[in-house]
Amino acid sequence: MVTDTEFLIKKLLTADNFIDDDTNLKQIIETLSIYPKYPIILIGGTNGKGSTCAYLTTILTNAGYKVGTFTSPHIFEYNERIKINNMPIDNQSLGNALAKIMNHSNSNLGMFKTFTLASHIIFQEHNIDIAIIEVGLGGKKDPTNLFEPTLSAITGVDYDHCNILGNTLDEIGLEKAGIYRTNKPAIYGSKNPPNTVIEHIKSVNATPYLIDQDFNYKEHEFCWDFMSPLRNLYSLPFPSMRGKEQVINASIAIIILTLIRNEFPVSISQIKNGLLQTSLIGRFQVMPGTPQVIFDTAHNPQAVDVMHRNMLKLHFARRNFAVFGIAQDKNWQSIIKQHAKNFDLWFLSPIKSDRSADPKDIQKLLIELNVNQNNIFINTCVMDSFSKAYQQLKSDDRLVCFGSFLIIEEAYQSFQGIRK
Predict the structure, then answer these.
(1) Of 349, 354, 355, whose CA–CA distance to 383 is shortest?
(2) In this structure, which topology does domain 4-277 adopt according to CATH?
């Protein structure tokens, strides 16, 4: 039986009258009085923003605050995009919020804009203490940026969505820097920020907090330290999520917590516990047991490079298998050129999206890069790719699923079925 919520989501997905301006959006905000009174922490960036949101949510929840979190995309259910204290919102609350927006709109706002408004309606209804909001695309023109943030952070800037954001890091950085506000903290969490980001911070008179200048981290064998003029934390446990980039994401979360600690104090033990308790499906997620299976939502060159470096830190694998699919508008050519020889077998399939890249095009490029055609397998769906790859695994092999959130959704479900 299809629920009202499922019907509304289907309508958002299939409607033909999608609009791309914010006039209707702003009218709905005014009509429904969506004016958040709670602080908003706005997190943008090419990679790492979802993990940073997760650390903040878990630590603040541990400290006893009521935390609303909006992230995208989801892995399994749309409800995952809107959470209260790390729990996905229930169907009834989600359906009611979506219906309010759609009933007051003279055209379809589309999925992301509708969910952005719905998140704040739900947060108001639940009387949250603080909202953690992940930017969808870019920053300046993103719907999440219509609501005034208390503090804004960019995890880093790299090449992604170039057809929309620009073809240079300066262009992409300027678009993302649009989330910074006058006289408010402007956090940047990667080394060597684009000049446009620094210039924009100055032009809007925001207060910069840059990694390596205003905060930093130092890794030791079994722990790590966070340093800043405002606060030093020593002997922190490594985050439960794997990869060196997670220490960087956790550092961004800690500088944010430091800047808001007068209103939202958290203890060192709550931070430590939060680092250990935070988890997200598909963030270099190494599953227990053998043969080794890894899920990673990496879908741009920088993220896949980080994924590969993390692979090299794991124990030796005799063979590496790839279950891969990706959207056509991603820079999949660069990913394949960089990593064609890093996998012994490639299992390709389309993702469940009209934007899917054609596996035959990926196969063609792999062959041009001297990958043996006998080591490339094209399948009709991700589940078939995962199943066939898993059947060929030996105990000392490794299977890595990456390229899209949609890859992780189906591959994870297949894995759960096999390992029951």
Answers:
(1) 349
(2) UDP-N-acetylmuramoyl-L-alanine:D-glutamate ligase (3.40.1190)
User: pLDDT band at residue 23, thresholds of 50, 70 and 90?
Assistant: confident
Say whether pLDDT at 227 is over 90: yes
Contact in structure between 41 and 48 (CB atoms under 8 Å): no
**285-418 shares the fold of 4-277:** no
Amino acid, single-letter form, for residue 406: L
Please provide residue 213's backbone torsions phi and psi, each rounded to the nearest 5 degrees: -120, -50
We find that the CATH architecture of domain 285-418 is: Alpha-Beta Complex (3.90)
Phi and psi torsions of 321, nearest 5°: -105, 145
The confidence score (pLDDT) of residue 339 equals 97
Task: State the average pLDDT over residues 207-231.
Answer: 96
How far is it, in rounded angstroms, from Cα 155 to Cα 252?
A: 7
Give the pLDDT band of residue 328 (cuts 50, 70, 90).
Answer: very high
How far is the CA of 337 from the CAs of 189, 341, 342, 414, in angstroms?
A: 28, 9, 10, 28
Q: SS3 letters for 345-413? A: EEEECCCCCCCECCHHHHHHHHHHCCCCHHHEEECCCHHHHHHHHHHHCCCCCEEEEECCHHHHHHHHH
Report, as an integer, the average pLDDT of 309-329: 94
Domain boundaries, the chain: 4-277, 285-418
Nearest-angstrom CA–CA distance, 197 and 158: 13
Quote the pLDDT of residue 21: 61
Residues whose CB is less than 8 angstroms from the CB of residue 161 and which lie 6 or more positions away in sequence, other chains included: 137, 138, 172, 329
Beta strands of 278-344 (E only): which ranges?
A: 285-286, 292-295, 320-324
pLDDT the model gives residue 2? 43
Per-residue pLDDT tens for 358-391? Answer: 999 999 999 999 999 999 999 999 999 999 999 9
Q: Which helix (H) or strand (E) holds 234?
A: strand 232-236
Residue with tokens 């699919």: 325
3-class SS of residue 40: strand
**pLDDT, tens digit, for every residue of 113-153?**
999 999 999 999 999 999 999 999 888 999 999 999 999 99
Q: What is the pTM of this model?
A: 0.90
Distance of CA 414 to the CA centre of its chain: 22
Angle, CA of 285, 397 and 284, to the nearest 5°: 15
Q: What is the 8-class DSSP label of residue 148? A: P
